[in-house]
Structure formats: C-alpha cells, structure tokens
Amino acid sequence: MLNKTRNIFITVVLVLLCLLCIFRLVSADTNAPTIHEPENSAIDLLTAQELQWIAEHKPITVGVDGYFPPYSFLDEHGQPVGMAVDTLTLIGKKLGITFVIDDEYRWPNIVTNFHKHNIDMVLTMVKTPSREDQFAFTTPIVFKSLVIITKKSKFSINNRGDIAGKTVALVKGYQYSDKVGTEFPSVTPYYVDTMREALEAVQAGHADAAISFLAAANYFQLKYSFADLKVATFYEKNNANESIAVRNDYPLLTSIMQKGIDSLTATEIKAINEQWGANISLPKDYQGLFELAVVAGILILLLSILVLQSKLNNRALLLANRETEQANTELNRLKDNLQQLVLDRTFQLTNSENRYRGLVESLEDEYIFYQHDREGYIYYVSPSVTHILGHTISGFGDYYDKFLTDNPKNKAISGYIKRILAGEHLPPFDMEVFDVDGNPHSFEVLERPMYDASGQCIGCEGIAHDITARKKQQDELYQLSHFDELTGLVNRYYFKLLLEDEIEQCQKSSQPLALLFLDLTRFKVINDNFGHSAGDFILQQAAERIIKGLKGHYVVSRFGGDKFCISLPNTSAASANIIALELIDTFKHHFEFLEQTIILGCRVGISTFPEDGRDAEAILSQADSALYEAKKTPFCVAFCNREQAIYNKKRLLLEQSLRQALQVSTLQHSQLFMVYQPLMELTGYRLSGFEALIRWEHPDLGVISPAEFIPVAEDTGLIFELSRWVLSTVCEQLVIWNNKGFDFKRVSVNLSALDLMNILLAEELLAIIDECGAQPSWFKFEITETALMAIPEQSIDILQQLRSADVHVAIDDFGTGYSSLAYLKSLPATTLKIDQSFIRNLMDSAEDQAVVKAVISMAHSLGKIVTAEGVELQEQVDYLLEHGCDIAQGYFFYRPLSAHEVGIRFIETDKQPLR
C-alpha cells in the first residue's frame, strides 16, 4: 500500500513537471505577433461617414519621434524615415490619405503637442493604463523587446536582476525609464536624450549598462561601430509594443487607422522590416534554457528514483522504463534544438559582419574611419581615404596635425582630443584637411576614446564625414542671403542686422553713429533708355566709387534699386556731412558705357544716432526722409527734420495721385488739363502762337502747381508718361481747331531734360503727332538751356531731326545757363526765349537790361527769333520793342486760357483782341 501511494505521488509530480515544461516552451512563442492576410483592401471597408470625415479634417498631422531608429528617425537631410514611417506611408497609400508629419521630432515636445491637440496622431506610443485615459490606440504596429546592453570587457550581466546597484543609461521621457526605477530602486539612472547617447554612455564608461530596444541597439551598433558593446540579456520580451495613438476626440480616425493597419499584408510588413534590418532573430534567453535544463535534471533524478522503485514493483519498473524512454527523446530534441540555436546565432553574426562590411564599402564616398594613439599618431585609416583625399593608406600614417590647414577652426582640435582622451563625451566637431593636391576638405568628426583590456585609454577612434560639398552649398546660400549679387555689397536684410549691432556698440561706448542714405539722380532714365545692362554697369561702378570714397570703419549696402546705405559708427553729424559732400563730388565725373558718355549725380540724406532714433528702423526711416529733402537743396545733402517727414508724406501722396490721374485722363474727363497762353508779335500785336501748359486740379487737394508736381514726375520717372500725355492731348486739340479753320500758328510744347536722354526721342514725338492726325508744322518744342547743355551732342542730334521734319525749336529760359558759343552757333533752334527773371526787374536793373540787349543782338546775328517771357507792364513792352524783341508773352497780353476760352476769344469772335 505504501509503494502504491508513493508511485501515485511520483506520477502526479511527473505530470506537473511535464506541464511546467510544456508551458515554458509554449510561452516562449505566445508573445510573437500574429499577422493575418486581409481578404479585402482597407479602403473598401471605409464607410461613407469615414470618407466624409477624412475630407473634412484634412490635413491629418502626425507626430514622429525623430530619434527612434530604425522605427523612426531623421536622415542626413533632416527628413523622417524608418520602419514606422514607411508603415504610415503605406497605410496612407491604401486609404488615400496624405499625412503631414509635424516638424517637432523630440519626444517630450511631441507628447506636449499631442496633449494640446496641436497634432492629430502620434505614430508610435506604448499603450499604458494612464495613457488609455487620455488617448485612443490601435493595435500595435511595432513589436519590440527591451534588452540590456553592456561592454564586452566589463561587468558580467547575465539576467535582468544583475542590473541592481548598477548605473544604467535610460532615455528621458520613454515609458520604460520610469518602470526600471520602480522595479530596481537601487539602480542609478544616467538619463540621456536618445538611445544612441545611451549606447555612447556605455561605450565611454559613463554607465554600466543601457536598456534599449533590440532593433534600435542593433541599428546603432552597425551605424556607429560600437565594437565593444554586446546584448547581455533581455529586460522584457514583447512588452514594449507600440501602437498609433489618436486624439480621444477623434474616434472615427481611430477606426480608420485600425482598418489601415488591418489592410497590411504579411508580405508588405516583411518587406518593410527587411528594408530596415529589423527581421533579426531575438537573442536567445539562456536563463530560460537554464530553467529547462534544471527541469530536465529533476526529471532524470525522478526517473532514477522510479528505477529504484521498479525493483520492488515490476509494474512500476515497466512504467518507469516508458517514462525514461520519453525523457530521453525529449532530451535529444532539446540537444538538437540547442545545436540549431548555435547555428542560427553563428549565421546572425556572419550576416552582421557582412552588413558592417557592406556599410563601410558603401560609405567610401563620404566617410573615413581612423584610429590614433594618445599623441595623435594615426596607425589605422580606412581605404576610403584614398578615394576622398587621394592619400594612400601608408602615406596617411603620420601625426594628424600634419594634414591640417591653417583654418582657425583647426586650432581647437587639440583641446577637443584632450577632453575626449579624458573620457568626456563631445558632440561632432569641424576639421579642415588638405587632400593630396593641396585642396582643402571640410570634415565633421566624431571621436570616442579606445580602451585596452585593462580599461586604460590608449587613444581615439573616429569617423570623419566629408561635408565639403554641403559646406560649399551653405556658403553659397549664405552669400546669396546676405549680399547683393550684382555689386557684392551687403544686402538690405544683413545691413539691418549689422546696423542693430553697431547701434548697440555705440550705445555702450556712448559714441554717435551716422547713417547716409544715397541714391543716384537720373538713374531710371539710364535704365529705360540704355537698357538694364547699362543700369547694372552703372550700379557696379557706383558701388566702387562709394567704397573708394570712404575711410575707416563703415558698412555699405545696396538697399535696392539705385539706393545705397552707409553706416558710419563713431561718426558725428559734422563729419558725416563732410563725407557726404565728398561722395557727391566723386559722382560729378561722368561714366563711360559702350562709348556713351553718361552723366549722373547723387543725393545724400543723413540721420544720426541717438538724435534721430534709437534703433535701425527709426534712423533708416529718418535718413530716407532726409534724402527727399536733399533733392531740393543745391548741395544735394540734407539732414532729417519734422517738416521733411511731413513733406515726404505729401510727396508720396502726390506720386500716387499723379499715377492715378494719368490713368483716367481724357479730353472729356480729367484731373489733368491743358491751358494755352498766347504769344504776341510786338510789332502790330498779332497772334504768333500759343504755349501749351499743363495744369492739375486734384479732387481733394485742389489746384496743384506744376512747380510742385513736375519734380515729382521727374524723380519717379512719370515724366515720360506725362510728356506723352501732354503731346497727345495737344495734338487732339489742334486737330479740332484745324477742323474749325482756326490759324493758331505754332503751339509750343515743353520737353523735360530727362526726355533728351532718350536717343529715339525725335522718332517717338513725330510718331505720336502722326498717330493723332496732326502735322509737325503745327508745333514748336521748347527745351531749357540747362537741359540742352547736360548732353549737348545728343540734344543737337535730336533737335536736328525735329527741324528736318518742319518742327520749330525754342531754347527756353535762355540766359540762366552757361551755353557755349560754339554750341549756340550750331544749335538748330529757331527761337531764343529770354527768361522772365530778366524781365521782372527790367526797368530797375541795369544788369538785366544789359543781358536782354545782348541776347537780342546775339540771336538776331545768328538769324534766330527772340521771345520775352513774363511781360506784365507797358514799360517792359516799350523797352523790348525799342530794342528789337520779336515776340512777348505774359499777363500784359493774356493769362493762360482754357481751350474753351481760346475758342471764345479767337474763333467765335473771328478776331484777336489784345486782352
């Protein structure tokens, strides 16, 4: 009875142990994810409501951890890539959704943005009870196991419990980091920002171990050649799987993403995993094998007991024999499995070695791997040094500083290496090295210390990334974004930054600063008439003249168009005024372009710090205002004042209003209109013609004097459009008068000095006359003496073309300029007009009388007619008549008349009254 009871007890124990073995063997595979092949595509399963929701909520923004390789990380171009990103892209393709990845890639910031609903989803997140209360989750898309990484040469850690009392590198903000602290209070955490930094901490000896995900650890070991690291054991298996997390107020989006995940096939998932090297076998849990071995030992012991019992009971002996036979079979199976495990591990190591070799070979265009001792002697360099720098491997065996250029950045390298040899963890630093031909190459270098078996630092090993092409692109982009491409001067954006810095320095040292705002006169005329190539040439030459005219510390910027800005720190207002006058003097000399003589000038507005402002924007605005004031002064230099700011505002209004007036002006409805002042023969007081004068009546500002708006038109280039409008309007009016039979003689039309810059002026004027149906013989064009002498040769050519077409020419304001007698003799003008400044005080000024008599005498000797302007008194008329003046105009005879008034006085009455 005792033997029977003992046999029953032994049988029960055997059954329990067998069940335990089966449970341990089965549980090893229960955590593996199961992938079902979907029968239909996910997009076919979306409901109408889900499709409508997608259409209404575009775009869908996704937060992606940029430091979680190979699942998600940033490539060398700063773009997110990895297994999870490819999975998201594939889901989007199947569902017809284009996801927008948020530009924040740090995990703590991603979680913060997710809480604030700044993003709709997080691509990978571990589902925990606390997070389930805040977010919705899909089924996992990333299956991960946590492993413990240690150095091969230090600290034997065989199971998760061995980390107790150790220093462990953990990633801040990751879910498992807090869990480790809870489970192992004796662990000293060494917090880092990324898993790569966790492995580097172990490699550098800052931590005894690091806890990382298996695939991520494998990725970093291959990428950064962490040769001294190994996977010691599991921390947890398949318990850190990550799902797509969705805002809890978007339940439909959770359903849509789940359908997208369900639509992925096993083939597609396998392809993504193989692409990123994630189809790796998990390291074998030797603790589990040890437990199986213990169980097997217990079985053998029990079988031995059964053999002893069989001597007492034949029936028990037969049963024990059968059980022993089964146990032997199981042991043989375990032996075969163990052999297969060894073969698999060997195959994995071979694959890893091949991948490492392939990685090195594929990076030979950009990366050099090297090792040097503590004194800097390079005793190993990868073959890529020949491909990149042209040096042979043996030729590169020397101290590293032999190959360095004299770039100032290289001076810091020796200090970096000393700190690395001391065990300090440094980020990548820059280095510039000569190639075999003496050309410099820029490298980004990452170095780490090397240790011998006893843990002593013996030197450094590093990876040098050739960034020469990237640095060249960066330098080119910097040049384009900070300097003017045409002149090479600082551009507007960079000038403002430098000006702010200079103002700050002057404020600290209690020193003044002057700002010069310079523009070129008549530049738009050059650009319009000679083309942009001439304009570009002038701007380049102007920049050179400005720089040559400056001394000391300054910054010159092309501020846009023909405007230049010059900052002069530690310069007073008086000194700035002298510098401005010197610059103006340098522009008095003409420019030569393709055998063309071009005469320009410049004007300078000046503002000072701190009087005119305490920041860059303020003094720039004040200098711009001063520039407009400079245009009215004979010296072309002005400082800013309050009145000038008011004037500038009105001037801008005039410019805008004049542009609008030119767009809507017609004979029937116009703010602009023409008036006609009769010219009278002094002998007989007969009509000799009219002078056409433009007037402007603004709907809000009232009548605006030509003396006020003509300079605005000349400065802005509107003078060309205004001159054409005047000629066309006069042509239309003369056609009307001609059809009525009115003999208006000739009508004078004024030309601007800027018009004469156009070498095709005569052709264009005659074309307008012809298009309007008028005749050249109806016109007399008036040009001021000053405008004529600016470019005399070209002006004479234009006037000769007009005379050849039977157009008369009058020299207006004669006597106020400095005409050369040689030019006057050859001038194709029919009339000289004495300026009204000589007529105004004619009866009281002997000097004015002398000028008038001289002009009349000289003009008649050259066969030209003389016209006097501004005649208002009988005494003036008598004097002019006595000395032979031919024609006069002024209020003594008629004020300027509208076309309607001309019709009443000269056409309808069929007579020509004097007043």
Short structural description:
By secondary structure, this protein is of the alpha/beta class. Helices cover 47% and strands 22% of the residues.
How would you characterize the overall build of this protein?
The protein has 915 residues and is of the alpha/beta class. Helix content is 47%, strand content 22%. It is built from 32 helices and 35 strands. A hairpin with a 5-residue loop joins β26 and β27. α4 crosses α10 and α18 (523-530) packs antiparallel against α19 (532-548). The chain is elongated and about 170 Å long. Mean pLDDT is 82; it is low at 21-39, 280-290 and 911-915.
Q: Specify the structural class.
A: alpha/beta
What does the largest sheet look like? Answer: 8 strands, mixed, barrel
Oligomer type: single chain
Strand content: 15-25%
Task: Give unreliable regions as ranges.
Answer: 21-39, 280-290, 911-915
Q: How many helices does DSSP assign? A: 32
Summarize the amount of helix as a percent range. 40-55%
User: How many individual β-strands?
Assistant: 35
pLDDT averaged over residues: 82
Distance between the termini: 160 Å
Outline type: elongated
Strand order in space, largest sheet:
26-27-29-30-31-32-33-34
Compute the CA-based radius of gyration: 47 Å
Summarize the helices and strands and which ones pair or pack:
Blueprint: H1 2-30, H2 42-45, H3 48-56, E1 60-63, E2 67-68, E3 72-74, E4 80-81, H4 83-95, E5 99-101, H5 107-115, E6 121-126, H6 129-132, E7 135-142, E8 146-151, E9 167-171, H7 175-183, E10 188-192, H8 195-203, E11 209-213, H9 214-224, E12 229-236, E13 242-247, H10 251-262, H11 266-275, H12 286-310, H13 314-362, E14 367-373, E15 378-381, H14 384-389, H15 413-421, E16 429-434, E17 440-451, E18 457-466, H16 468-482, H17 492-509, E19 513-521, H18 523-530, H19 532-548, E20 555-560, E21 563-569, H20 573-586, E22 591-593, E23 596-598, E24 601-609, H21 616-630, E25 637-639, H22 642-664, E26 672-681, E27 687-698, E28 702-704, H23 706-716, H24 718-739, E29 746-750, H25 761-771, E30 779-784, H26 785-790, H27 792-804, E31 808-814, H28 821-826, E32 831-834, H29 836-840, H30 846-861, E33 865-868, H31 874-882, E34 887-888, E35 897-898, H32 899-908
Parallel strand pairs: 1-5, 1-6, 9-10, 9-11, 24-25, 27-29, 29-30, 30-31, 31-32, 32-33, 33-34
Antiparallel strand pairs: 2-3, 3-4, 6-13, 7-13, 8-11, 8-12, 14-15, 14-18, 16-17, 17-18, 19-21, 19-24, 20-21, 22-23, 26-27, 26-34, 26-35, 27-28
Helix pairs in contact: 1-12, 4-10, 12-13, 18-19, 21-22, 22-23, 23-24, 25-27
